[in-house]
Specification:
Elements lengths: L15 H6 L8 E2 L2 H4 L4 H17 L1 H7 L1 H15 L6 E4 L2 H9 L9 E5 L4 H14 L2 E5 L9 H7 L4 E7 L11 H11 L3 E4 L11 H4 L3 E5 L11 E5 L1 H4 L12 E5 L2 E4 L13 H17 L1 H20 L4 E3 L9 E6 L4 H9 L3 E2 L1 E3 L5 H7 L4 E5 L6 H16 L1
Parallel strand pairs: 1-13, 3-4, 3-5, 5-6, 6-7
Antiparallel strand pairs: 2-8, 7-8, 9-10, 11-12, 12-15, 14-15
This protein binds pyridoxal-5'-phosphate.
The site of pyridoxal-5'-phosphate (PLP) has 13 residues, from α6.
Amino acid sequence: MRTMSIPMPDPMAIDVEQCRAETPGCSNVLHFNNAGAALPPQPVLDAQVGHLKREAAIGGYEAEAEAESQLQHTYDAIARMLDCTPEEVAIVENATRAWDMAFYAMPFEEGDRILTSRAAYASNHIACLQVARRTGAEVDVVPHDEYGQIDVEALRSMMDDRVALLALTHVPTNGGLVNPAAQVGEIAGEAGVPCLLDACQSAGQMPLSVDEIGCTMLSATGRKYLRGPRGTGFLYVQKDWIERLEPPLLDLHAATWTGPDTYEIHSDARRFETYEGHVAGAVGLGVAVEYALTLGLEAISERVQMLADTLRTALSGASGVTVHDAGRTRCGITTFSAEQKTAPAIQMALREHDINVSVSTPSSTRLDAEARGLPDLVRASVHYYNTEAEIERFVSRLKSVLKG
Ligand SMILES: Cc1ncc(COP(=O)(O)O)c(C=O)c1O
């Protein structure tokens, strides 16, 4: 007798229909700009708007006091996502400020070496160059391997006593590359050198355990793959490092004025924050992180990768189109150029059809763009709430845009 195999429901699977139903923007736009700012789900929107309404109804400070447990929840949720403690988390206004607060707190001296990668983001690299000019530290770029990711063996051979920081961009702004952060973290750990991971583009689209990665500091933003509010970001600093890092800026929240000539800096990661902040955003950020944790970052990563692979394959078959994503492991971001039209022209033409993408310019990742001779690129970044039908529609519209 033939036995019929009944497919088992995949416990990891994401209920895409439900996620779309909970995302108001899905009915307006085909949104492939998740690496710019993802569409927030309704619970995130409700949390933010709810808080703003309380601010208007009872006063900003009073609403903040009322939201104390929600604010604490944001630290707790981020800590669960990163596998750290809430005391190791600072909530700030964006990923750049998070990164800066850690980076500018490092006591660089003449002769120190800052190792970075070809995928470095413009703002971070500008900061490295500024600090190098100010202090006489050196910025050295670790080469990439044949896959276009950081060359781990080259990095190992570049380590010496002068290396003061290893700064790695996990996922660059200009493509799907996922740098092997855990291998880099291991090398940093062996050498006792702090590792600052820019997880701006990876937070919310893949698991991000700071323990497994072995990074000392990590910066991220709320609005991208986490689907949180704009104007939110966070910094993780490993507890043994917090008191070794004196923030470049202090206020009465980061430090306490203890006497006319004295102050004490907060002993936890709050030292990297400021007093005034975007409270509704911070509340919404916690809801966004919880939303991602409930779906599961493994499941999110699996679906995002599957959709991005489908998109890349479809784009590779389109005449005149070149996909530029590097890396052995690739994520939800796809960048491409086309012979027929420039990236800004493609972006504008797609926008007329309510299709959102962004443009990645060479100046945002100059080291990589110059090494590979990249022009302006169209960046199409998918999230788990996107669908295969949207990919088909996207590619078909792109083909007609390129013909027109
Ligand atoms: C790799 C990377 N790092 C940092 C940032 C900066 O993030 P934010 O705009 O939140 O400061 C970006 C933004 O696109 C990015 O792509």
